[in-house]
Amino acid sequence: MGRTMTPALVAGLLFLAACGSGSGTSGAGGGSGEPKTGGTLTFAVGSDTGCADPQQVASNDSIYSVRQLVDSLTDQDPETGEIVPWLAESWDVSKDASTFTFHLREGVTFSDGTELTADVVKANFEAVPDLGALATLATGYLTGVKEITAEDPQTLTVAFEHPNAQFLQATSTHSLGIVSQASTELTPQERCTQGIVGSGPFTLAEYVPSQSATLKKRTGYAWGSSLWTKDGEAYLDEVVFKVLPEAGVRTGSLQSGQVDAIGNVARADEPALEASGATLQARANPGAVFNLGVNNSNPILQDEKVRQGLRNAIDRQQIADTVFNSGTEPATSILSRTTPGYHDLSAELGYAPEEAKALLEEAGWKPGADGVREKAGQKLALNLAWFANSPTNQPAVELIQQQLKDAGVAVELKQYEISQGPEVQQSGDFDLMWGNLTRADPDILRTLYSTSLANVYRVPASDLDSTLTAEAGAVDAAERKELVAQAQEAIVGNAYVIPVVELQTKLGVAARVHDLNFEASSRIQLHDTWVE
Amino acid sequence: MSGQLLETGTALGLPTTPDPAQSGSRGPDPARATRRTLAFFARRPGLVLSILIVLVVVVAAFAPGVFSSADPTRGVPEENFQAPSTAHWFGTDSLGRDLFARVVHGAQLSLRATLLAVSFAFVIGGILGLVAGFVGRWVDDVIMRFVDVVLSIPTLFLSLAVVTALGYGTTKVAIAVGVANIAGFARVMRAEVLRVRTALYVEAARGVGARWYTVLGRHVLPNSISPVLVLATLEFGTSILAVSSLSFLGYGAPPPAPEWGTLISDGRNYLANAWWLTALPGLAIAATVLATNRIARALESEVRQW
Amino acid sequence: MMRRYIAKRIAQAVGVLWAAYTLSFFILVLLPGDPVTAMAGQGMDSAPVDPARLEALRAEYGFDQPAPLQYLEYLGRALTGDLGDSVATGRPVTQLITEALPQTLLLTASALTLALLFGGALAMAATYSERRWVRQFLLSLPPLGVSVPTFWIGLMLVQFFSFRNAWFPAFGNDGVKGLVLPAVTLAVPTGAQIALVLAKSLSTTLDEPYIATAKAKGAGRVHVHLRHALRNAALPALTVAGLLVGALMANAVVIETVFSRNGLGRVTQAAVAAQDIPVVQGVVVYGALVFVVVNLLVDLVYPLLDPRIVLAPTRPQAVAA
Question: Which Pfam families did the record assign (chain B) (predicted)?
Answer without folding.
Answer: BPD_transp_1
